[in-house]
Amino acid sequence: GLFMNIAIILAGGVGSRMKMGSLPKQFIMINDKPIISHCLVTFNNNENIDGIVIVCSPEYRDFLSDWIGGGKLNIYKFMNFADPGENRQYSIINALDTLEERNPENIIIHDSARPLVSHELINKCLSTLENNKAVMPVLPAEDTFYYSEHGTHVDSLLKRSTLFRGQAPEAFNYESYLKANRSLTHEELLAINGSSEVAVKCGIDVALIDGDKRNFKITTADDLDLFKTLCDK
Known about the structure:
Structural class: alpha/beta
Distance between the termini: 41 Å
Shape: globular
Mean pLDDT: 91
C-alpha cells in the first residue's frame, strides 16, 4: 500500500537522568538545532521511509512544528503526533493506535536521543524485515557480566559471547506487533523496557543485526559532551 514503512520517533521522555534543568534532552539546542532534528532529517530523507509519527507531549509540539514545517528542516513525511504514555511502551502503543486506519506494513521505532542513526542501519532493519517479523540491531557485550539475583553476591557466570546490547531503531511487522502489544496485561506492559521485549514475550522471533557504535543514546551530560564534540568535527 501507500504506507509501507512508518517511522515512530520517541520524543515523549522527560530525561530524568540528565539533570540539565527542565528541558528534555531531545530538545536541547546544539549548533542552533535541537538534538531531535538529526534523526528526523535522516528518517525523512531515507528513501524507504513513507511517513513519520512523533510521540511528543503537547507542550513541545509548537516548538517542534516550527522546525518540522517552518522551512527549517522541511520534514515533509511527518504525519501526526501521538501522546506520551505511562511508560516508553505505552508511548509506542499510542503511536501504533494512530496508525490503525492506515494499516502500514512495517514500523521502525527510534529514540530521538540517538541522533546519529545512519541510512545504512535503517535500510538493514527494513530489508531484514522482508523475511522476519521483528528486527533489532545489537552490539556485542564488551564487559564481563555476572548474574546476581539480589545484587549481593555472584550467583552464576554468564557467557559474554551470548550477550548483546540492544540498540534502536527496532523494526516490526505492524500487524503482528500491534497484536502482541494488545495481548499483554497492564502490569506486563509497565515492566517492558525495550520494544523487542514485547515480541519475545509473545513468541515472535526477533532477528539480530549488527548495530552501530556511533548510534549511541544521549543519556548523561557526558554523552551530550561527546555529541557536541562530534558535531563540531
